[in-house]
Amino acid sequence: MTEYRPRLFTSDDAIVRIGEGLLARTLPREDWTHEAHLAASTYLVARRTDIDLDSELPGIIRRYNESVGGVNDDTQGYHETITRTFLHGVRLFLAEADPDEPLHELVNELLLSPMGRRDWPLRFYSGERLFSVEARRHFVKPDLSVLP
User: Fold this and answer.
1) What's the pLDDT at 5?
2) In whole angstroms, how far apart are CA 41 and each of 20, 23, 74, 75, 105?
3) Using CA of residue 141, residue 142, residue 146, residue 148, what is the dihedral sign?
4) Burial 121-139, CB ≥16 within 10 A → b, else e
């Protein structure tokens, strides 16, 4: 098993570029990585309180995916349960974080925490449930453990 080594950020500007690039649909597709997903979510939760993420984030991500040639269907693109689970993790992380810390340092700490790992949702969901069409289309409750 290889050690988890996320790509870390060196500036707040890099985080803002990803968050605003997602919103404006100008972020290059190759920049939409796992780390970018969490950076954008952290930016949106912490700095874009004008956006109701619970209702608007699915559309934001779907529109972005389509703008870069992606498809949102039963096997690819937007995944409701994974998005909601990571958004929950970002909110939990930020609730305990120092709000005066630079944004990129917060994102890096998140990425290095258990909540930042790609497999974090699998602590709560079986692979069968998490990767089901139902979970992609709608939020489904965990089947292994309750979300913290």
Assistant:
1) 87
2) 11, 11, 23, 22, 14
3) negative
4) bbebbeeebbbbeebbeee
Token digits of residue 122: 């699998």
What 136-140 contacts at long range (C-beta under 8 Å, 24+ apart), as own/partner pairs, is 136/74, 136/75, 136/78, 136/79, 136/80, 136/81, 137/74, 137/80, 138/80, 138/81, 139/80, 139/81, 139/84, 140/81
> Degrees (nearest 5) of the Cα angle 7, 104, 31?
45
Q: CB–CB of 142/124 below 8 Å?
A: yes
Structure tokens at 94: 């930020």
Residue 112: half-sphere exposure toward Cβ, Cα within 13 Å = 8
Predicted model pTM: 0.94
37: amino acid identity, one letter = H
Tell me the per-residue pLDDT of 74-113, one tens digit each, with 9 for 90 and over. 999 999 999 999 999 999 999 999 989 999 999 999 999 9
* Residue positions counted in the chain: 148
